[in-house]
Amino acid sequence: MKGVQTLALIELTALFDQHNITYSKLKQKRQKNKASTMFGVNLETLLERDQRKYPDTKVPIILQKMTSFLQENGLAEEGILRISGSVSRIRQLKDDLDALLPGATMQWDAYTTQDVASVLKKWLRELPIPLLTAGFTQAFAAVHSIPDSKQQIQALNYLVLILPDVHRDTLKHLLEFLSMIVKEEKANRMGLNNVAMIMAPNIFLPTSPSQKPSKIALSELVMATGMATVVRLMINYHELLWTIPSLLIKQVRYQTKLQNNRRGREAGKFRPRKNKVDFYRKLENDALETVVDVVVESPPCCMWPTSYRVPVTNQKDETTAEKVVRKLCDYSIKKHSWNDHALFEVGGNIELRRLDKSTVLPLLFRENPLGKWEVRCLHPPIYEVKM
To answer: Nearest-CA neighbor of 256 among 224, 280, 289?
Structure first.
């Protein structure tokens, strides 16, 4: 992923230079409440602690608890996110979450959906390192200055790829939750514009305290409009933002081959009888000539068949990633939706990437014959986090 992040940053810089856009790094906030275990704590710290109990989790459990409660109880409730909860109950809920032991069940009976939504927004605002990171929060905000809508989405795509893993995964979880709220607009009267306007100040930091009072009102208005535009784009196109562009994939493959060649040349200086360049080339040629089908590994947690074979040497075969995932899902004992899973390319000349559902696998095999394919779950793991 580091190679992709480096290339994404280069492409983002070129795109910003094209539109004369600059951004600066924000100052990191200090932890306000040192006694708190959940609020004002870095995402990395929260996740590291949660993974001791749930090793496969990628998003802080406190956020999962709150979004799960709201999904089950408040998606259709009018004014969710907009109507504030009781000040006293918000304070008490914050204390209860802080005191909750890992793995313990949260008692939600005393709280309303407005209370939980208010605490969720408070949790986001109090992150010492903001969700979009101190280095790139202003870069995200600057995207609204790009006049072309396609280039706006492209810039957001690069920015999402650049984020550290825990920030990227947490943002993905949040945007998926917000998109669920928007889908219930007829019931909750919270359309895309309303959700974006309400959540923007909680995701982005406020304007610099060094600004003069006379200029704050106007700048905040301009900033709020821009932030809401960016949040609206992220919610609306959240399924696209985690896709690695084909241009970056080609560059990563090329760089990987160059590195293998370089290592082979260096190894050849000391081991003339074993040249790694020839070794890797032979492996690829053997794979292209002799492999009749490629095994797609499936997740054991879903009780799917252990594998699915794709006839990669049949040039007329047009098996896609979607077809494989759907087929395995049909055979599954546990009936998860195929949309809750994705096919990933692993190894070879790339580290890891999620494949687009329209990817033709035999063609992909020729691009990376030493890689393998795995179906991975997008739904929560088989163990469920106690709410």
So the answer is: 280
